[in-house]
């Protein structure tokens, strides 16, 4: 071979060697610092507790203490839901619950069919299938409301499943005048069985992504709370302080430490069969009204006991409040005030530091306060319009408002990794005190994950709340619950009201014994005359914010509503 030819061969081999060396250095650095090591995968092959295939999941990364295991077991028992008969094949559509053939009946325990304020109204629902046959088992998801369009009044009903096709719905009677019953079948028991399987076994049906970049070169990979490691090496982004887990597939050429943006990936298609899709037809068997067998309206007379109030002691139902003349009247210990003027809100928030953490339904609170307080000036941080973080200042009255999205999972436009902060870590960074207000709303982005994931996140937040209240007992903490929403198209597969209700029950239980207030967004939306949507309309947002302000200024506000 001529000398010149050997020269070119040597040059090519040298360049190839340099490329291999650089690639190995990148891989080596990543495995050393960021990747889940191979032994971890092997050790945990058989440890997955609620996924059908080997994954890196939350229980594999952080063992639970005994009391945490007991708490989790109790919470899961609390949200246990009746299932269709076991061992039977999935029914065809004709055997499933059909709201068009189902009926409800108002039950009267009095011979004269009269009701008074302070009584309890009971309604019985008989579910039937598409052939009009009575159902013989429970598990359907119903929502109910008692309302008066004339009085602009409303209260949510409490549903009891007798697990034989019959359901009882109970309402406290809290106003005199007309009252009309509405009952919705949100999902059939057969649809619930599909949602339960998707939640527990297909958390990947919503997926996320991250962008990695070095210089002008970038790569994009899939990320999630749980990822099958057999599809490639994983970058482990588990938070060292809170313990919250997050993983991404490692890019081909870049290291794990080059991740700089998080984004929503997309929604998986074909996650259910064609027959199962028939159970999720909006307007047919998803969130459809059930008809009354005779009448759906009663007339409520004034209380027989003249000294009784409209907050009767006999109301033992889990009712947090009701609407009357479009105003929310809570039944709890915090008296409601209505902040209709900017100066009343300003007076309440003077010298206050208000920190808002959560999803976009919590961002609505920030946006509402910004819109009604002209003295607040939003600081231009040049952050994305939806993800934030945001800050507003009222220098004259020494008011500071902060809003920050919670850490992943979040279905959102691309956001810088540096802005992904876990709520628990944010709470640990606060000094706290009587002039500090913390509001938390975290639920909408967790519906596609097993409930254990949500329990873990709330547990970390709760521990941080306890630490905050221990070091600064005067700190005001407000927790916003979840809310129902419109279920059009295939949205039920990713954000069903049933998935949300399960989370809502867990959230209430986990914060029950703390010195915090729960703003009951679920009942505020369910009892209202406006339709359900993911982001509640402004009148309901105002009600929620008014409830928060009533709690903040409960010892010094003069605008208390008279019952």
General description of the model:
It is a single chain. The protein is of the alpha+beta class. It folds into 3 domains: 3-62 and 203-267, no CATH class; 95-194 and 283-301, Immunoglobulin-like (Sandwich), CATH 2.60.40; 321-552, Rossmann fold. Helix content is 28%, strand content 24%. It contains 14 helices and 26 strands. The strands form 5 sheets. It has a 7-stranded mixed β-sheet, with helices on one face. Helix 10 (451-471) links the parallel strand 24 (436-441) and strand 25 (476-480). Helix 8 (360-372) crosses helix 14 (538-552) and helix 10 (451-471) packs parallel to helix 12 (497-510). The longest helix is centred in the N-terminal third of the chain and has 31 residues, at 3-33. Residues 18-56, 312-316 and 557-563 have low confidence and may be disordered.
Q: What's the topology here?
A:
Layout: H1 3-33, H2 38-43, H3 58-61, H4 66-78, E1 103-107, E2 115-116, E3 120-126, E4 141-148, E5 153-156, E6 158-161, E7 166-172, E8 177-187, H5 189-201, E9 206-214, E10 217-224, E11 234-236, E12 247-249, E13 259-267, H6 274-277, E14 288-289, E15 291-292, E16 297-301, E17 321-324, E18 327-330, H7 342-349, E19 353-358, H8 360-372, E20 377-378, E21 390-394, E22 399-405, E23 415-416, H9 423-428, E24 436-441, H10 451-471, E25 476-480, H11 492-495, H12 497-510, E26 517-519, H13 521-526, H14 538-552
Parallel strand pairs: 1-15, 2-16, 19-22, 19-24, 24-25, 25-26
Antiparallel strand pairs: 1-3, 3-7, 4-5, 4-8, 6-7, 8-14, 8-16, 9-10, 9-13, 10-12, 11-12, 13-23, 17-18, 20-21, 21-22
Helix pairs in contact: 8-14, 10-12
């Amino acid at each position: 071979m001529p000398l010149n030819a050997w020269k070119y061969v040597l040059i090519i081999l040298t360049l190839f060697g340099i490329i291999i060396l650089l690639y190995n250095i990148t891989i080596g650095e990543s495995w050393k610092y960021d990747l889940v090591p191979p032994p971890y995968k092997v050790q945990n092959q058989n440890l997955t507790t609620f996924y059908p295939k080997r994954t890196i999941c939350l229980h594999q990364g952080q063992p639970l203490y005994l009391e945490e295991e007991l708490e989790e077991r109790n919470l899961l028992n609390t949200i246990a839901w009746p299932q269709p008969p076991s061992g039977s094949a999935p029914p065809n559509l004709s055997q499933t619950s059909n709201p068009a053939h189902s009926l409800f009946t108002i039950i009267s325990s009095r011979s004269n069919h009269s009701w008074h304020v302070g009584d309890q109204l009971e309604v019985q629902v008989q579910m039937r299938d598409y052939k009009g046959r009575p159902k013989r088992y429970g598990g359907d998801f119903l929502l109910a409301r008692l309302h008066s369009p004339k009085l602009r009044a409303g209260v949510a009903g409490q549903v009891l499943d007798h697990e034989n096709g019959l359901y009882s719905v109970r309402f406290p009677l809290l106003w005199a005048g007309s009252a009309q019953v509405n009952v919705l079948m949100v999902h059939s028991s057969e649809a619930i069985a599909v949602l339960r399987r998707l939640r527990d076994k297909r958390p990947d049906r919503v997926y996320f992504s991250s962008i990695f970049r070095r210089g002008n070169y970038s790569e994009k990979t899939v990320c999630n709370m749980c990822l099958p490691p057999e599809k490639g090496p994983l970058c482990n982004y588990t938070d060292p302080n809170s313990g919250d887990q997050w993983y991404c597939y490692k890019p081909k050429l870049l290291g794990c430490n080059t991740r700089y943006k998080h984004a929503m990936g997309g929604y998986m298609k074909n996650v259910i069969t064609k027959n199962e899709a028939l159970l999720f037809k909006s307007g047919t068997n998803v969130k459809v009204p059930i008809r009354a067998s005779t009448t759906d309206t009663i007339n409520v007379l004034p209380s027989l006991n003249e000294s009784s109030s409209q907050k009767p002691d006999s109301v033992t139902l889990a009712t947090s409040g009701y609407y009357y003349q479009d105003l929310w009247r809570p039944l709890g210990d915090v008296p409601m005030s209505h902040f209709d003027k900017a100066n009343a809100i300003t007076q309440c928030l003077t010298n206050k530091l208000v920190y808002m953490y959560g999803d976009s339904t919590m961002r609505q609170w920030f946006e509402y306060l910004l819109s009604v307080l002209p003295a607040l000036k939003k600081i231009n941080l040049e952050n994305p319009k939806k993800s934030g973080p945001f800050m507003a200042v009222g220098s004259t009255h020494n008011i500071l408002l902060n809003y920050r999205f919670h850490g992943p999972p979040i279905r959102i436009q691309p956001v810088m990794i540096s802005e992904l902060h876990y709520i628990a870590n944010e709470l640990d960074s606060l000094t706290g005190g009587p002039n500090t207000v913390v509001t938390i709303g975290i639920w909408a982005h967790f519906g596609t994950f097993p409930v254990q994931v949500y329990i873990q996140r709330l547990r970390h937040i709760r521990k941080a709340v306890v630490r905050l209240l221990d070091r600064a007992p005067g700190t005001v903490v407000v927790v916003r619950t979840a809310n129902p929403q419109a279920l059009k198209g295939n949205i039920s597969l990713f954000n069903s009201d049933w998935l949300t209700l399960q989370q809502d029950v867990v959230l209430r239980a986990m914060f029950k014994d703390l010195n915090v207030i729960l703003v009951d967004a679920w009942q505020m939306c369910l009892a209202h005359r406006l339709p359900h949507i993911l982001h509640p309309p402004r009148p309901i947002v105002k009600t929620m914010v008014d409830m928060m302000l009533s709690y903040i200024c409960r010892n010094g506000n003069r605008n208390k509503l008279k019952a």
